[in-house]
């Protein structure tokens, strides 16, 4: 039995006409360039690996230069401009070039710093919908492949489960970039992103579904993924492939965002039973974000975060506010960061088997980091799942439910693996103070892993303890791309409950899909501070 798959796809959703060229193995080469014939689940598995999972390499992933804006946006108050750095005669400007609109919360994120033109805004949108379309093709085809024995049936469970998991993950991610935070009182009317779950090429203008509709699709996909992956009996061999535990952790996260605390806690508890491991920093001081960390559950795509933070002007620094959130007895402070003056950089990474070494007194990070430019880490900075998140999800959900003893015990289980054994790190607070403590721990533990912006958004609408505060970013205008001479420094403020907590729909998408409504964002003024 053969199933024909189209892999030419017109990007109606992105406003760009492109070919979805699948590179899945030799079986493609026997046929024409616009069709392929699937004989077994292995053919679809190759398609899944090659075009549905985001690869680690920068050349295939959302490239560094086009993706730096998205990185900066997701880091939120975890990042600040590097205002005191290595005063070289040359400062690499592409570290900031197309991130201005994201970093300063402009009405259009493609805005350049001179307010004269716009950079492309649809790179992330286009890539994610590309992957969704591949998932749609796999899901449409998987039930038609032959299953003559148990091994083939197991393969079908695996591919079907992973395809549904990835489609859910991608729509959840898009919803939290381009849709408002999930609020049960407005989710039925708040606009989100277009939903496309069919493999059929549709020559039409797309519209935006509601936040409720997109979340329902995410939950539906995750339910199927859980059923299928639970039936896949083969032992897991790689963190780069999703399994039922990864599915449970994503379910916990989704329900936490939806404020369905009981379900969020239930799925987090499943993860803590299936994958309870936490790395004790008292006994392990090596690089933390590596593929063999015992906490890793799932990782997909590369990590450019080390390329953003460089000790020189016209670059970025970990925010002093984040760094100061760690106490001196918190081992994450010394093991995950380095500091020189006001500059803070991350040191918990390993890039292509070469450890970074730092000579803080001479600014050695500048030379070492640039020798590794555009090489990515072994684990993702946006699509990483660790067991620590399950503990935090469980503690937060139980705290909202009033089960404070359970919440405190869970939180303290994590903390005893992060703080020096020489101090008592246990949290004893209750009520609102306990919730604040859990949120603060989440910020410290999951820093630079793509959670912070989404967390800030959901706190805005949390029914138990809503929270929002202004965030300030400063942007320095230099005399030129290769100059350290400052012309003027501008201060931008993201106000509490600001509309800019939701990204605008990319202009390229709006241009093509005539009539698609955009998200309302205010024009962003600034104050001159230097």
Please give a structural write-up.
This protein is α+β, with helices and mostly antiparallel strands. The protein has helices at residues 41-52, 64-75, 100-103, 123-142, 150-178, 211-231, 244-257, 261-274, 305-308, 320-324, 331-336, 364-371, 387-400, 404-415, 431-445, 452-460, 507-512; strands spanning 3-6, 35-38, 79-81, 296-299, 316-318, 337-340, 343-346, 350-351, 354-355, 384-386, 471-478, 486-494, 527-528. The strands form six sheets. A three-stranded antiparallel β-sheet has the order 11-12-13, with no helix packed on it. The protein has a two-stranded antiparallel sheet with strand order 1-2. A hairpin with a 2-residue loop joins strand 8 and strand 9. Helix 4 runs antiparallel to helix 5 (150-178). The longest helix is centred in the first third of the chain and has 29 residues, at 150-178. The chain starts with a strand and ends with a strand. The model is unreliable at 6-12, 16-35, 58-66, 89-93 and 352-374 (pLDDT under 50).
For the sheet with most strands, the description reads: 3 strands, antiparallel
Query: What is the average per-residue confidence, as pLDDT, rounded to a whole number?
Result: 85
**Ends: how far apart?**
70 Å
Secondary-structure content class: alpha+beta
